[in-house]
Amino acid sequence: MIKAIKGFNDILPTQSAKWLQLEAILADVLGRYGYEHIRLPIVEQTDLFARAIGGATDIVEKEMYSFADKSEPPTPLTLRPEGTAGAVRAVIEHNLLRGDTPKLWYIGPMFRYERPQKGRYRQFHQLGVESFGSALPDADAELIAMTHLMWQALGLKDEMRLQLNSLGEIDERHAYREALVAYLTDKQDQLDEDSKRRLTTNPLRILDSKDASTQALLNDAPKLAEFLGTESMVHFEQVQDYLTALGIDFEINPHLVRGLDYYNKTVFEWVTDKLGSQATVCAGGRYDGLVGQLKSIGTNDDKSDKKPVKSEPAIGFAMGLERLLLLMEAVAPIADKPACDVFVVAHPDVYSAGISYAQNLRYSRPDVRVKMASATSLKAQMKKADKSGAALTVIIAQQELDDNTVSIKDMQTGEQQTVTQDWLSSKDNFSRK
Ligand code: ATP
Ligand code: MG
């Protein structure tokens, strides 16, 4: 038997109804903020991710699904591990920034080669949001406020804690990195293995190490906040002021650095206590340099150390839909919904009358979900009606046809009665639960 690949999950009908419900609620909130939907390819050139995310990140170092296609010469391609790089690529490619400041959202599968466990899969789903064109802190606050409204709409408001940090600008971060490396270099024997390696590849990631002795060492390390310039500080304070004005609680987490290279200034995460070590449900930040960086690929600016071609400020976030659903299940299990409200059973001799009845009912009652079984025996059809979870079964046989009636059976009480054929067209007689 050929099975699905490890970490790649089927989403079965009992689950998919919850997915649709979750997606509808999130799309509704996005619409209320004026965000527009964009659909992006699942595969991009490997280079796009390597450039955007950064070579020394977990994603690019070890998590990407990359392959060469059959073109000559073969093109290195990658299943998208995240959505921002592709969204920025599309925005540049289609000139969406010309005279406009797009606010976009997308939803779909992402792929990362990680160790599968609860809340961590190799194919998982994100809702991503990217807001272009504003360098001002109100844009940061708006995005965060929108996620806050999403938690409210999903009944998760009390489960989420907002953590904030500022990474400053690239030069500020570079200065900090040097100070951090200088501080840690002669103490590197006390670092965990990952952090030791990161000391040369991606030192900032050492800050979010889970290792206790590494964390102890960091207590006396230089602090990122001390390296922020006035502009970065003021920006960060204004974000906090807006959030306070909006009544949104937050914690400053000076060790929040995010795994991707493209962030600057504000970074944030929504975390929960209910999902173990898969605690982060939603994460994002500002990436003012990324548009310029991707625009400059292939130009001379790309090769030099000077600032890249004109960028466009932007900020975004992504949330993990599997984690959101796990959390919703943990807080208030979502009831399984039956696939139909009314089941129509028709004797095989008068089956065409049954089909017509069901079809007319679907026309006259768009609010009611009507299901039938195939034209087997009445008994076999009744069995399917029992299993279907329908609230009501309509039974049509020769007698009913002769009398211009139908029989209806309340599936909860088992009570059966004869009613006129148009009985169901009135909402007073039957409404969907
Ligand atoms: P983590 O620290 O848990 O690995 P991350 O920092 O790699 O997360 P991001 O790249 O910021 O995650 O992705 C945003 C969100 O997508 C995460 O907060 C999480 O909810 C979800 N996510 C990321 N990787 C996975 C995965 N492998 N399986 C399920 N959800 C994921
Ligand atoms: Mg990760």
The share of residues in helices is 25-40%
Integer average pLDDT: 94
Overall 3D form? elongated
Any ligands, ions or cofactors bound here, and which?
adenosine-5'-triphosphate, magnesium ion
The CATH first-level class of the largest domain comes to Alpha Beta
Which architecture of the largest domain per CATH? 2-Layer Sandwich
Which stretches are poorly predicted, pLDDT < 50 over at least 5 residues?
none
State the helix count: 14
Task: Domain count, please report it.
Answer: 2
- CATH level 4 superfamily of the largest domain: Bira Bifunctional Protein, Domain 2
**Structural classification:** alpha+beta
- The secondary-structure element order is HEEHHEEHEEHEHHHHEEEHEHEHEHEHEE
Largest sheet: 8 strands, mixed
Quick one: how many beta strands?
A: 16
Overall radius of gyration: 28 Å
Strand order of the largest sheet: 1-5-6-11-10-9-7-8
What distance separates the N and C termini?
Answer: 41 Å
What name does CATH use for the topology of the largest domain? BirA Bifunctional Protein, domain 2
Mind explaining what this structure looks like?
There is one protein chain. The protein has 433 residues and is of the alpha+beta class. It has two domains: 13-169 and 229-331, 2-Layer Sandwich (BirA Bifunctional Protein, domain 2); 342-425, Rossmann fold. The chain contains 14 helices and 16 strands. It has helices spanning 13-32, 46-53, 58-63, 84-93, 137-154, 170-185, 193-201, 212-218, 230-245, 290-295, 321-331, 351-364, 378-388, 398-403; strands spanning 36-37, 43-45, 65-68, 76-79, 103-111, 123-132, 161-166, 251-252, 264-271, 280-286, 314-320, 342-346, 370-372, 392-396, 405-410, 416-420. The strands form three sheets. Strands 1-5-6-11-10-9-7-8 form an eight-stranded mixed sheet. The two termini are 41 Å apart. The relative contact order is 0.11. The model has no long low-confidence stretch (mean pLDDT 94). It binds adenosine-5'-triphosphate and magnesium ion. Residues 58, 259 line the site of magnesium ion.
